[in-house]
What does this fold into?
Amino acid sequence: MNALKLTVLSWLVAAVALAADKTPEFVTQEATGEAAIVDNNRDKALQDAKSAALREAVEQVAGVLLSSSTLTANNQLVSDRVFSRSDGYVRKYEVLEKKEEKGVMKVAVRAEVGTAQLDRDLQAVKALVERLAGSRLLIVVQEQSVSPDKVITETNVLSQILAETFQKDGWRIIDPAFAAGKLEVSSGVSLLTPEKKVIQELRSADYIVTGKVTLRYEPPKAAFELKGYYPVTGEFELAVFATDSGTQIAHVSDKLTSQGVPVLVSYESTAHGIAKLRGQKIVDEVRRAVVEYLSKSEQNGSAVVVTVLGLTDYASVSEFKKLLGQTVTGLRDVKQGDFIKGKATFDALLVGSTDDFADALSQKTYQGKKVSVTGVTANTVEITLAK
It folds into this structure.
């Protein structure tokens, strides 16, 4: 009880201190952690319990620095990017108590948690969360189920679960029937890369999940399983694209099994259970990939596609590439793409916004022609050269 009182008191002191105008450099926080003793390895269990306690101390301090709503709604994101390296925020600590109960090692610690770097990292995550909030997602998945007698039926079990889970995560789900633009996807499960220039025409979504899912309703393997037994297996392969640049930012594939899912009601029920179980993991993987993509974009530049209309010949394409690389601040790694009937495309990395890029281009001329910006999105710029 005394330890609990001390923990509550230290929590209140930390909360008051962090709420003040000046955040203290370090906050002392008490926390507990536990770990199962496996194969009688008490040393490992002690270390794992101590790490869990230090992580809990960091989480407690983080809860004061960052709003609880952000922590709750994006717990996996915060865990991946901040709490996974919680030891780095602890200047020093002491073990207050360690004990073993029923095969579980329990440790209580008092830790000094540094707030400066933790706050910077949390604010970075918060900025990413805000960028993710309301992101428009289009899910176009070819999904089918195969019955024991080999009848193939189009389904949307996993697609529906993904849509529901992403929506709870704060994403805006775009109905494929109302998506503006075109998307061409190969029917082959291992050929997921759409035509890049086609995917850029999708203006109604920020990201797209596309791919193929196959669910097979397995016949019973033994006579006694003929009644009331509905196992399902299968596989999926999905790719995630940033639609405005056509950049593939994630590729997820795996087998689907009935392990951990009830199989005693119907094949449809089993399939739904598999999709629900695996769907959350897919959402976590996609969210992590998008966050990494956004983080790298901020640090190294985001992919941008520049389309130029009005170039006369191939030599002029090379010359315009030089103009882009030499005169536009923040644009680098310019790569020449297609050139068809006076229309050329360039892929590049841009540090900064396409709006600033467009402003800079609007002040340029090329071979006596005015450079006119005739289209701008977050990752595309269209240029028309005056005749």
